[in-house]
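Quick start: what a row looks like.
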Amino acid sequence: MTAFVLHLRDQEVGGAVTSGRLFRVVGDAELDWDDRLPEFTVATRGRRVVVVLHGYNNSLSAGRTSLVRFMGLLEAGGSTDPMLAVLWPGDGHAKTLTYPFEGRDADDSAEALARWLGANAGAGTRVALVGHSLGCRVAMRTAQLLARRGAPAVDRVCLMAPAIDNDCLGGDAEYRDATLAADRVAVLASEQDSVLRYAFPLGDLVQTVLFSEHWSSALGRTGPLEDDPQIRARIEPVPLANPDRAIDHGHYLAVDPEKPGHTIAESEAFVLDFLARAPRPRWPAQRP
């Protein structure tokens, strides 16, 4: 597996956003690769690199475990793209009390990630982004920055249980440029997501009061609410999760104990088809 881990943090819990240190995934080990950055440049030159991002309240080790495991599922499913797991400080010692302030860390992480990719991705690299939860804010902000800078190019973007506003992809919203630059944007959403049903509105309200951000429902619970034809043409029409599957917030990256080769939400199956440009990629957990 041509897989790397980029640390945008230097503490197990919390801490500031860093400029980034690269590691290579070799078997079960993680080898410091920062003095071999030209090898990453060569590995991605003229190719697509799949960037995967964890969500809120993941320690460094927890985020690394879940993302490396998810990259392994993609490889087992046939993916041959080089992959990059990104660890960012979307957590703190105060746990859920830090949520209203993590949006700033997400944006700072996106700035650092876009700079790092611009400096180290090979010529002609295309960047596909796969995010979970608040990591989707990092993904869309990164795509926005790359779109405005022109390189590396934005490929496809898959947002799993995105903890961002359900009307943020188009209209006059901040991610319009990112959506238009992407080949396609897909959203996996579930009305049974308890985190996005209860915690997100409260945290979003606090962010609105403190930072004058837009207050809305979560994209990962309702799916995208967009009227602009240009924007809708970029969004993959994926139905919400089947209520009978009871897909909750943590199910997108958690391995199913009854089917170890899959996540509980079978999100990796959709990601594989979506990135392979299947004409109608189907999420096994979607409504019939």
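That is the whole record. The first strand starts at residue 3 and ends at 7. The CA atoms of residues 172 and 241 lie 28 Å apart.
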